[in-house]
Amino acid sequence: MKKIHLLLIIILTSFSPFTLLAQHNNDTIQGNVTLQQCVVYALRNQPAVRQAAIDEEINEKDIRIGLAGWLPQINSSGSYQHYFKGSPVNSTGSAALPAGTPNNEFSSLGLQASQVIYNNDVLLAAKTANYSRLYYKENAVSSQINVVSDVSKAFFDVLLSQRQLNIINEDITRLQRSLKDAYSRYQAGVVDKIDYKQATIALNNAIANRKQTSEAINGKLAYLKQIMGVNPANPITLDYDSTRYEKEAFIDTNQRLDVNNRIEFQLLQTQKNLKNLNVNYYKYSYLPSLSAIGSYNLIYLNNNLSNLYSRSFPSAYAGLTLALPIFQGTKRLQNLSKARLQVERADLDIENSTNTITTQYTQALASYKSNYTNWQMLKQNVDLAKDVYNVVSLQYREGVKTYLDVIVAQSDLRTSELNYYNALFQVLSSKIDLQKALGTLTVQ
Fold first, then answer.
1. What residues does 297 pair with on adjacent strands?
2. Of 156, 149, 139, which Cα lies nearest the Cα of 227?
3. Averaging pLDDT over each range in 10-24, 93-107, 227-241, which range is the top one?
């Protein structure tokens, strides 16, 4: 018995909510993580996605509650009364006790059963079950799509800031080398102190910019963790592959918009179908409700409480019950009119959604094309700026160019590199917006 008792404790403990919570918390993400890993983790742990899954389960329980009305309903009842005056003999038709006998004891036990044959409420529950399931499934997909979009954009935002930080660090290295060259030339008496002071100013500005960018990365990384559902104390490092992201920046801009692919449009269509069912519900609510009923009762009568249950008087019956609404103060007509107005309003929601989706697609397509063209143009600028800087830097050491030319070349190189990465990640973000507008953003 002790072994069995211990086994039961282990089984119950293994399936307890605390254990399940612990298992959920063991879902961690570490090391260099890719965008795909971030999205998958977010789809498992993001609170909004988990809430949508719980909403599906709640809706399933509501459906089963509504459909339970089709099943037989069985109830039992029991009562006991002590009569100080009069007797229940006349009401039961039994001659067990003479009428008017004082202190009569009365008790009854019964079992009642009913089976719905037709009822407008349970019929509505049956008709709405599939649409209700579809609605909450689409709602879960909508939450997942939003998570994929938000996580992807936040991921690219962090990567962009990290690329900017790398560029600033490279710029600081160049500035330190330029400062060293300028100071050496000043010590040699070739130039005055203006060159190395200008180099010092530029270096200080770059160091301050590095600090700002570094702190900005911490804030953006914290936001990424938030929308992923990651513990803020859990460190993560983002994996960067420039070649892969450059390949992924392309999307076919000749795709045709189909509003039926948008999850928002699908949700509105499902909502309209549910409202149409409400119209039918109120339209036919004048029909009667029909149920089969049956009952079995035991009645106990005696003058003494100790002998009350010594003899019973059974009774049983079966039959049909019909409930027909005759006049409800125009309540049915008002509800029917309201339901039809709700359907009309749903049509306007669909019309407005179609216009909104079309506008979103047009804006997303224009943004993507603009960003893609800008990115292609800026590719060349980086190589050109590097060549210019190398030549000008060499000429400055040889005394051909002034330090002002070096500052301009450094600034052009830094700007071209920053613009390139900014354009690349703008293209990737606008691609996500375009996929979302087309309804083709996949939930992986």
1. 110, 315
2. 149
3. 227-241
Q: What is the CA radius of gyration of the chain?
A: 39
In the chain, DSSP finds a helix count (H) and a strand count (E) of: 11, 6
- Chain segment 309-367, per-residue pLDDT in tens: 888 889 999 999 999 888 888 888 999 999 999 999 999 999 999 999 999 999 999 99
411 neighbors 405 (Cβ within 8 angstroms)? no
Reduced to 3 states (helix: H, G, I; strand: E, B; else coil), residue 150 is helix
CATH topology of domain 29-71+119-288+328-438: Outer membrane efflux proteins (OEP) (1.20.1600)
Burial grade of 82 (CB within 10 A; 0-12, 13-18, 19 or more): exposed
User: Residue 165 and residue 216: Cα distance in Å, rounded?
Assistant: 10
Task: State whether CATH 2.20.200 applies to domain 74-117+290-323.
Answer: yes
What are the φ and ψ backbone dihedral angles of 408, each rounded to 5 degrees? -65, -40
Q: What is the DSSP letter of 255?
A: P
**Residue 444 confidence (pLDDT):** 62
Q: Is the pLDDT of residue 398 over 50?
A: yes
pLDDT of 24 reads 46
Q: What is the dihedral of CA 191, 195, 200, 202, to 10 degrees?
A: -160
| pLDDT above 70 coverage of the chain, percent | 89
CA–CA distance, 358 with 351 (Å, rounded to integer): 11
Domain assignments of the chain as residue spans, ordered by start: 29-71+119-288+328-438, 74-117+290-323
- Cβ-based burial of 137 (10 A; exposed 0-12, middle 13-18, buried ≥19): middle
Mean pLDDT of 29-45: 87
Classify 116 as helix, strand or coil. Answer: strand
